[in-house]
Amino acid sequence: KINPERMRANAIEAAEQCGILSVPTCREMVRLDTLLNEWDTDRALIFADEAAEETNPLAALKPCRGRPLGLLIGPEGGFAQAEREQILALENTVTISLGPRILRADTAAVAALAVIQAACGDW
Predict the structure, then answer these.
(1) Looking at the domain 31-120, which fold is it?
(2) Which residues 6+ apart lie within 8 Å of 37 measured at CB?
C-alpha cells in the first residue's frame, strides 16, 4: 500500500538533499482516465512509451523546453492498448523512448527524469 504522507516526506527530504527550493507535488493515486480527463492542457504529458516513433528522446523533448510538464511511467508489463490510445489522444502528449530494453517501473522513472533533465532542465 502506498503511504501519501511517506511519499511527501521523501519528496521533502530529496528536495533538501538536492538544495532545491520547490518540493515536487505528490498526489494520491487516481484512475488513469481520471488523470487524463483532469490533465491541465498547458502542461505537456511526457509518456515513456516503448513504441515511441521518435527513438531519440532528446529530439522528442525539444518542444517541451520551458513548459510545465508531467511524466507518466507505466506499470511493469506496460499499458493495455486501450490505455495507450487514451494517453496518445491527449493533445499535449509527448512520447519518449527509453531505449530497446524493458525497464522496471522504478528504473524507468529515474531514466526518464535524467533524460528530461538533460533535454529541458539545467544540466
Answers:
(1) Alpha/beta knot (3.40.1280)
(2) none
